[in-house]
Queue: 2 jobs
Job 1
Amino acid sequence: MVKIGMLLDMSGLYADVTGRGSATAAQMAIDDFGGKVLGKKIELVVVDHQNKADIAASKAREWFDTGHVDAILDVAASAPALAVLDVAKQKNRIVVFSGPGSERITNDLCTPVSVHYAYDTYALANTTARAWCSVAARPGSS
């Protein structure tokens, strides 16, 4: 069996963008894929981290230690993601972030077991500032 864990904010600030809808989309993808990979059944487990780093880290540790979870996905919000990243690094287990924007995930805390599949705060700010500066530098701009 391949067990995928999703740590989502299902009751707080990010619930509309990563909550129940993300879990449903992941299950739909598993079902569309036939529910198996390399002949092994895919199981999805989902928990609300309530946008709290301690809950996210505790659940990640439990899943990796006793829950037989192979990878953790999503983890919206930077504080919970950074806490889960630390656990994944300690346990040498896979974590894929598609929600948090902290540039630390992409830069100084990047690990061989982590994927940051999203914008980061540096890229977002840098792109915005460069775009504004290029517009402001045009003749006739004020």
Note: The first helix runs from residue 15 to 18.
Job 2
Amino acid sequence: MPTQQTMQQLDIFADSRDVMLRNDVLEQLQRRDAMAARTALEYLTREYPDDGALPAMNVLVRELEPGSEVPIADHATLVRGRRYLEDQVVPAARRVLPALAIHAWMALRWRSLAERAATLTFRSAEPESHAAPLWLQAGEWAAARDAVEAIESWWRLPAPLAWMTESRYRTDGLDAAWTLLAELAWLSPARFAALLPILGDASLDALRRRFDADFPGTGEVDEYAWLPAWLLVVKPALAARLGEARVQRDQAASRATALLGEILRREHEGDQHELVGLRQQLSGLHAGLFDAYMAARKVQHR
């Protein structure tokens, strides 16, 4: 008859056995060896059919196994493929893979979907049904840029402009991205606001919080269109970068940014006569922004 100590040893062996089998599956998943992962999963399933990790592991093993590599021919198929990754594969990866391995593992899945979607044209009605955001998910910044550049007049379209802005930021940093950030804020303040947490830039987030607290407005998301102009008040050193942005004449906030750039130039030149008229124009575009500008001038000249 087994002693209590023997029973404890058997329990430890049983516990370690399921851990060992589970780790075997995880090792092959991270090596992306589909056949070995399937074999390891079958061992785990036979011995521990009620293991809580089995459903997620099954999803990930199926992702590694040979599937359709045929180019996606229509937007509806891409929508289904993307939703499957988002709703099934990503949660499964988070359920069983080590945290540090998830991004690299998923990047290949996003890359595969992007490659299959490469021939699909951009549709404004279905902006996410395009290869560019998939390349961004995969961390392939250059491929995302190339996909956006293939879209006619991409800088006039909110989604492609946001994708290009992220690509520029990832490859060249915040300083190089200011021009596109300004254009995005004017064209689509909501897209601009949604992009900031994706970028996760500490200095940009700090400026956004300061804008939220200090800008004289109602707090509506559309007011982010005025953030580039406001930046010239609080960080005039950005004038050169923001001056490279394509001015959108139908947007008052865009015209105000260009106007403030001209005001800063005239101040540097000491042209007081021209400044009077330019400041009047700024006041007409946004009285609160003009007041913030004048307050900053008073502080500078104390």
Note: The CA atoms of residues 4 and 10 lie 10 Å apart.
